[in-house]
Every structure is written in C-alpha cells, then in structure tokens.
Amino acid sequence: MAQDAIDLLDADHQRVETLFRDYLSAGSDAAAKADLAQIICMELTLHAALEEELFYPAFREATKDEKLVQEARDEHDQAKQLIAQAESTDNLDALVAELQRTVQHHVMEERLQIFPKARSAGLDLAALATRLEARKAELVASLQEA
Ligand SMILES: [Fe+2]
Ligand SMILES: [Fe+2]
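A: This is the predicted complex of the input protein with fe (ii) ion.
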C-alpha cells in the first residue's frame, strides 16, 4: 500500500531521530558533527515547511482545532530559532542537544495528538501525500539551485 501523508511525515521524523543518534555517536569528530548538524537543520526546515504549507492547513480545515495547530507552530518556531543559531554557535553540542529535546517533544505531540486526530477526522491522507511529495521535490530542487 502506498504511503499516506502521515506515513511520509513520520518517515521524516524517524530519519531525523536517526541523524540525532548519529550525531551523538560521532563523539569527538567535529567535522562529522558539523555535517550532521547541517543535514539535521535542512531536514527539519523542509519538514516544517511541508507541514506549515500543506498538512497543518488541511488538519485545521478538517478538525477546526486552532489550538493544536498554534501549539505546533509555536514549537516549530522554537526549533527554527535554534536552527538559525546553528551556523554561528560556539557550542554546537549544546545547541544540537536542545534542538533534539525540542524536536522530540514536538514529534511526540504529533504522534499522540495531531496524527490520530487527523486520521479520525477523515482527512484525505492519500491525496495529501501526493501534494507533500510534489512540494518536497520542488523545495529540494530550489535548495539545489541555491
Ligand atoms: Fe511539526
Ligand atoms: Fe512533524
């Protein structure tokens, strides 16, 4: 069976969880950690854009749950503030650790509250998956041009 929108979004979450683990395993390899931090920030930026442009508006439309969407957006903003500091920080380990905590908390809210509510609200998750994949391809292409 094809992946629906929630499968796609949670695959992003799992990929980032693995990257955070890789970062911890990189130990004292500063170059590897800098690369991983950059990939983590890029993955999170793409993922947040897809949710904010497509998934959250569809969720809000289907559930009328303004509060959950606002909480989620606030958590995205917290992560974005940390991501904005990643290139200039002199303590990347501390910043990545804080980003990991922020993301873990947010992903848990999505898995426990937002995703189950989206499923029970009858969102068309198959159609949304197609839109997410198309938009992701566009965003990746524009990053590669930059
Ligand atoms: Fe999110
Ligand atoms: Fe998410």
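The radius of gyration is 16 Å. The chain has one domain: 5-145.
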